[in-house]
Amino acid sequence: MAKTKRTRPTKPYPDFPLFPHATGRWAKKIRGKFCYFGKVATDPKGQAALEQWLEQKDDLLAGRVPRPKVNGVTIRDLANRYLSAKRDLMENRELDPRTFAEMYACCERIGKAFGWDRLITDIVADDFDGLRRQLAKRWGVERLAVEIKRVRSLFRYAFDSGLIDIPVRYGAAFRPPSARVLRVARSQRGPRMFEAAELRRIIAAAKQPLGAMVLVGINCGFGNSDCATLPKSALDLKGGWVNFPRGKTGVNRRCPLWPETVAAIRQALEARPTPKSNQDRGLVFLTPTGLRWVATAVSEPAEGAPLKVHQSNLVAIRFRRLLRSLKLRRHGLGFYGLRHTFETIGGDSRDQVAVDHIMGHARNDMASVYRERIDDDRLVAVTEHVRAWLFGEQETK
Question: How far apart are CA 179 and CA 160, in angstroms?
Fold first, then answer.
C-alpha cells in the first residue's frame, strides 16, 4: 500500500510576513533568532499569528521582549523579561552559565507555585509564606537562604524595570534563616573537606582525566567549572604554572603546579579525545565522547514558555561515583570539597593573601585594590604546604 504524501503548509499569500516552521508553528527569524506566533494547525490562514506579529513587531525588531498587552504583568511576563535580560548578560560573558541555569530553575519553581498567569500585583504575603514552607521542606537552611535571596531578586527586578509601580510586599516571614541558624546547620553537617588519607585513596583510584582534575582541584583550589573550562593556553607545564582568572569573580589566579599535577595533566592530554565542537578545541579536559565536562545550553522556548535550559555536570557525577566506590561518600561533600580543603589547609601556611590569590577570592578592601601582584615565592609556599600535608606522611615512610 502506497504511503500518503504529507502536504507541507504554505503561506496564505506570497507577501505574508511569517512562514510555517518545521515545528508546526508560524515563525519569523528576527535578529538571528526564531520567534513563533501560534500553531499552523489551529490557525491555517495565519490570521491570529498575523495579529500577534503586528502587536509585537516593534519590540521584536528592536531586540526587546514584547511588553504584555493585558492590564497587569503576570509571572510568565516577569520570567520572560528577567531571563531575557540575564541571558544577554550570559552571552556577553558577564554572567556565569551555571548562575543563569539556577535563575531559570528559580523562575520555574515560582511559576509552578504561584501559577504562570497570576498577576504580580495579586501576590500577597500569604503566598510567600506558603512558598517558604515548600522550599524549607525541600532543602536545608543554607540552600533555603540562597533561594529566598534569588526570589527576592526576581521581584525586585519587576519594580526596578517599571513592570510594577510599587515594590512587592513579602511579609515578615519571607526572609533567609538567621546567621545563628546557619552556623548551627554547618556545625551539625560537619566539615566539608577531605582528609589527607582520603585524598590519597581518591587520587590512586581515579582514572584519567578525572585523576588530573582531582589533582588540579586540590593543588589550585579549582572547582568543577574551573576544570571543565580550563584552556590549554592557561598552562605552562614546563615551568609548572597555571594562569587562569576565576569565572565567577574575574579575579586573576596564578598557581604553581606540583610535579604530580603536571604529570597527570600530560597523561590526560595524551589521551584527550577529538572535540565534538570547534569551540572546545582549546580545552584541557574533555569527556570520552569529546564534550565538555560541565555544560549549560539554552534552547529556543516552546510556545508559551520562557526558555529551556539544559545543564550537565559530569565532573560531579563521576566524582560522586568514585567516592561511593571507595565508601567515602558523605552528604554535601563532592568535588567542590577539594576547594574547601585547599582553603582550609592553605590557610595554615599563615599567608591568607596568597591563598586568596590562588583561590580567586575578591576582597572588598583597599589593600586588594592597591595590591598589583604577589611574589611567586609566596604562592609556592602555600601550595607546597598543602602538598606536604597531602603527601608528606607517606613520603616519610
Answer: 28
C-alpha cell, 372:
598589583
Report pLDDT digits (tens) over 12-40: 888 899 998 888 888 889 888 888 888 88
Sign of the alpha-carbon torsion through 19, 24, 30, 31: negative
Q: Are residues 218 and 362 in the same domain?
A: yes
Task: Establish if 67 belongs to a structural domain.
Answer: no
Range of the domain at 273: 196-395
The model's pTM is 0.70
Question: Are 117 and 259 within one domain?
Answer: no
Burial 239-259 (b: 16+ CB within 10 A, else e): ebbbebebbbeebebbbbbbe
- The model's pLDDT over 218-266, given as tens digits with 9 standing for 90+, comes to 999 999 989 999 999 999 999 999 999 887 767 788 999 999 999 999 9
Contact yes or no for 253/243 (Cβ under 8 A): yes
Find out whether 47 and 312 touch, Cβ atoms under 8 Å. Answer: no
Q: Are residues 319 and 213 both part of a single domain?
A: yes
